[in-house]
Amino acid sequence: MRHKGTIGGSIANNDPAADYPAACLALGATIVTNKRQIVAGDFFKGLFETALADGEIITKVTFPRAETSAYVKFRNPASRFALVGVFVAKTAQGARVAVTGAGSSGVFRWKEAEAALDKAWSEASVAGLKASADGLNADIHADAEYRAHLIGVMTKRAVAAAR
Ligand SMILES: Cc1cc2nc3c(=O)[nH]c(=O)nc-3n(C[C@H](O)[C@H](O)[C@H](O)COP(=O)(O)OP(=O)(O)OC[C@H]3O[C@@H](n4cnc5c(N)ncnc54)[C@H](O)[C@@H]3O)c2cc1C
Fold first, then answer.
1. 58 lines ligand 1 (CB under 6 A)
2. How many whole angstroms separate alpha carbon 90 and alpha carbon 88?
3. Residue 1 resides in a domain
């Protein structure tokens, strides 16, 4: 039975519901390959798509130390993959909120939540925020509006966990 994977394999695959892409994007990771260094914001390009060229191999991933961070996901009860997962990080460059499982183009940053958390890092700061359903996945598991709702709930829980 297959029960192990690598961080390189996960981010190279860039499944829209994968966990590690959210960690890389929120923490501002640098993806090191046999050819160059790519910041996470430039690495994830779309569904199962990355900046990697043919034959380019990830050799290392580095993460700057965040002041605090947490990841919370709402799992699909059957697959256990994230229906919506939110990684929040308080970094030297400010708050970062990365969302996986929801976007039709894969992992993305929720800038409105980041701006709110930059004002004050607390659950209250994000409690009233509603993510837009535009561009979110809709399938038999959840429609776009439900995923948008979950983004808000998971963000609040992640901020609480990070405190
Ligand atoms: C039983 C099971 C449970 C899982 N649970 C989760 C989960 O809870 N959360 C989650 O996020 N994902 C989960 N996954 C998905 C898993 O993270 C991905 O399948 C991941 O790709 C596995 O990593 P791997 O190292 O085996 O890569 P592989 O599956 O071997 O490779 C994936 C792709 O990446 C390429 N690749 C691999 N390594 C590199 C590298 N170093 N540089 C460049 N390209 C590379 C391969 O060529 C291939 O195209 C699960 C998978 C399985 C089978």
1. yes
2. 7
3. no
CB of 13 closer than 6 A to ligand 1?
yes
Q: Is the dihedral of CA 33, 39, 42, 47 positive or negative?
A: positive
Domain that holds residue 140: 7-162
Number of C-beta neighbours around residue 123 at 10 A: 15
| Domain CATH for 51 | 3.30.390.50
User: pTM higher than 0.85, yes or no?
Assistant: yes
Which amino acid would we find at residue 26?
A
Distance 7 CA to ligand 1 centre (A): 7
CA–CA dist 39, 7 (Å, integer): 15
Q: Is residue 33 part of a domain?
A: yes
**pLDDT by residue (tens digit) across 82-108?**
999 999 999 999 999 999 999 999 999
Interval 138-150: pLDDT, tens: 999 999 999 999 9
How many domains, the chain? 1
